[in-house]
Structure to design on (196 residues):
């Protein structure tokens, strides 16, 4: 007997869940774990952080070939796909960094590129710790295969990044989380990972 696949939840489910857990203890965010479709984006919450001061939650998105819109010439070889993935990862990391007020980028060796404190509050966002933060590990100078962004031969794009789920103290900020996951993440993905 096969294990039952988790139901993919949508925007309405996200709103209902975040309204239900608003103001509750941070552990209730665990209900976010799993697959979602938010604004037409296949999004998955892969790991939920334990509290707002812990390492941020891990999230991934998969863009279909039609959503990504990459030219077939960019998919012709593995080397080209790796180069495109590196470009997209840099674009996403830079856009996420600009959104948070320009803190240092995280490199794939664990260091930073310099700049001010990367735990500074996110511009226009409320909350404690890493609330509202969106970040991606930025590739180093070399163009090498990496896991932050992968471009597949069919033209689909898979991206992995972190999101600081909003809280005040250890109490969930449901409206802020809805804005983050329902608006900010899709806008960032659209702006940085979709070909124009």
């Amino acid at each position: 007997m096969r294990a039952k696949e988790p139901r993919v939840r949508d925007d309405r489910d996200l709103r209902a869940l975040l309204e239900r857990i608003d103001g509750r203890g941070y552990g209730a965010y665990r209900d976010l774990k799993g697959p979602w479709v938010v604004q037409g984006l296949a999004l998955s919450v892969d790991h939920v952080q334990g509290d707002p001061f812990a390492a941020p939650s891990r999230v991934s998105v998969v863009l279909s070939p039609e959503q990504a819109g990459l030219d077939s010439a960019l998919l012709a070889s593995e080397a080209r796909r790796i180069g495109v993935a590196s470009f997209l990862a840099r674009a996403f990391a830079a856009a996420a960094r600009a959104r948070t007020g320009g803190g240092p980028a995280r490199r794939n060796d664990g260091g930073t590129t310099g700049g001010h404190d990367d735990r500074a509050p996110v511009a226009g966002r409320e909350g404690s710790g890493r609330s509202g933060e969106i970040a991606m590990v930025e590739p180093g100078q070399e163009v090498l295969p990496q896991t932050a962004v992968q471009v597949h031969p069919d033209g689909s794009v898979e991206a992995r990044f972190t999101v600081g789920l909003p809280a005040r103290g250890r109490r969930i900020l449901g409206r802020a989380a809805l804005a983050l996951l329902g608006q900010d993440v899709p806008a960032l993905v659209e702006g940085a990972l979709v070909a124009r």
